[in-house]
From TrEMBL, chains A, B:
Protein name in the entry: NADP-dependent oxidoreductase
SMART domains the UniProt entry points to: PKS_ER
Alphabetic keyword roster: Oxidoreductase
SUPFAM superfamilies: GroES-like, NAD(P)-binding Rossmann-fold domains
Residue ranges constituting the Enoyl reductase (ER) domain according to the UniProt record: 14-333
GO molecular function, one term: oxidoreductase activity, acting on the CH-CH group of donors, NAD or NADP as acceptor
Length: 335, 335
């Protein structure tokens, strides 16, 4: 069986050019005992892949020129020599940037393509969606009628989180940087969106937004940012407020000497709970998540925003398009 | 019925003198419908009372010269015109600094003098003890074999917390200021005690203490202090560590501009949980607490440290003694 796959011609920094990519046709091996052969149907392009193209080793290995790249993919099993998968099953894998592949069944993840469109497992039903869900359901335990502040509302976690919180019956105030991102948050259902770049008093802006939407105050804060956002959250949260922290992106590049919020004593004064988490520790929620999500999508409460390019040869264009703003929502390539 | 009670002769600041107190004999009214008459058996003197003697209104009303002062007391009901109490019942009240009193039954708290010695309800079985218990049981959920760092180990909450954590099967590292306080912590059962005044690297000293007692690291931190203690805790806590915060005393007098810990991102990096609480929100645990505490005391695992003066006329001496270090453990007056 033949498959086309995308290689880098060289590692690079700076502007991305189509010349850095080439398509090659290869022969796919027959599956051995314990292996499956899969035809990819959907391929993901993600901004983080940019770092792997530079050739510099960070927390993941760099992509090597002349070899197939990796990335999220959803495909259909066409041949199986594993008890785990039957022909016709859909699987999520990291064997993206290629049309087909053969690999051990162990380490793949089965997805239910009857419940949700298969490509959603690369976006809203995938890791970013589950991260949003875990934070809201388990860490915050968001209740109907409560008010949530979703930070980084236009990000991968934020766009899911806004929709899920609305579907759960909460009021949502989103923050994002710039008018366009705030418009997106409102379009996704946020009751209010605050442009943090356009205010010098974030706490005051959040309190005003809460009054504007008839909320009695902020019950919970979804922390993706840190820094001035966390400081404002500690100030505006109500008694017994909850903070789910899955990222403090403003802090990642800091020198260690950058001080934390000066109002941390609010945790004691208002009996707040703040909890950090990583999604991998809460994979047990995935089943409930997929069930809730399919219900919400069928009821029209949650939509998967996608921009779709067709054909493996469009992978470089799709990837480059991420950085020139060609996509609304999740950028995908349909094989 | 006659009762002697202690009055202030005047409000004062600075050094406390016996002249500021006088004993007066008064007639106690017969109880009316819904009231009880109680003979106090145990009276509490506490450092916080000092503030109420200055005549300055803070978060509580100041004591007025010529009137009976207030304070924790445990007494026996001698006459009851209330369904809530029978003669012979023991009650905790704030009608201290006097031998006997008549008051509405509503607002008193019944205590079980068969389960625990009545005076313990002013100390280890009272609010400081319950605060320690709630933090360990509900907020931290301390498990057998885990290692707890108890800050302010020689304080009212700390002395209880060290003993309770040991009774729960945990290893305990206590911190306190000075050799004497550290000796007290060890005497109460702490596996290690670190004098925070004698180290310029608290995190390193805690890690060393953990190694010394054969612990694999700090699972939980009981926060009473804030500041450099919290910074060190965020550094030394293991993955999934829990922080119970019932006070950050180092922060209470701070100007708002004092920065928080620079390593708060550890909450995300190590999936930590930090939760503030006040004991009044967890009064539902009191029954389980009294039951556990009586079991621990009968088994000799927990002891109530008390210094006892006898007679209402010794109340001023007992109170003054608090500030000259006359007490080991809880300072009490037996009527």
């Amino acid at each position: 069986m033949k498959s086309r796959e995308v290689h880098l011609t060289e590692n690079f920094v700076g502007e991305i050019k189509p010349d850095y990519f080439e398509i090659e046709e290869v022969e796919i091996a027959e599956p051995k005992e314990g292996e499956v052969q899969v035809e990819n149907e959907w391929l993901s392009v993600d901004p983080y892949m940019r770092g792997r193209m530079t050739g510099v080793k960070t927390y993941v290995e760099p992509f090597e020129p002349g070899k197939p790249m990796e990335g999220g993919a959803v495909g259909r099993v066409v041949k199986s020599k594993s008890d785990r998968y039957a022909e016709g099953d859909y699987v999520f894998s990291m064997y993206g940037w290629r049309e087909a592949w053969t690999a051990p069944a162990k380490g793949l993840m089965k997805v239910d393509a009857d419940l949700l469109p298969p490509q959603t497992y690369l976006g809203i039903a995938g890791m970013p969606g589950l991260t949003a869900y875990v934070g809201l359901k388990r860490i915050i335990d968001l209740k109907e009628g409560e008010t949530l502040w979703m930070s980084a509302g236009a990000g991968a976690v934020g766009t899911s989180g806004i929709q899920f919180a609305k579907a759960m019956g909460a009021k949502v105030i989103a923050t994002a940087g710039g008018k366009e991102k705030c418009d997106l948050c409102r379009e996704l259902g946020a009751d209010a969106a605050v442009d943090y770049k356009a205010t010098d008093n974030l706490a005051k802006a959040i309190r005003q937004a809460a009054r504007d939407i008839g909320s009695s105050g902020i019950d919970a804060y979804y922390e993706n940012v840190g820094g001035d956002h966390l400081q404002a959250a500690l100030d505006v949260l109500k008694q017994y407020g909850r903070i789910a922290a899955c990222g403090m992106i403003a802090r990642y590049n800091d020198d260690r000497s950058v001080p934390g919020p000066s109002n941390l004593v609010q945790i004691v004064a208002k009996s707040l709970k703040m909890q950090g988490f990583i999604v991998m520790d809460h994979i047990d929620l995935n089943e409930a998540f997929v069930k809730d999500l399919s219900g919400w999508m069928m009821a029209g409460k949650v939509t998967s925003k996608e921009t779709i390019y067709e054909g493996i040869e469009k992978m470089p264009d799709a990837f480059i398009g991420l950085f020139t703003g060609e996509n609304v929502g999740k950028m995908l390539v349909k094989v």
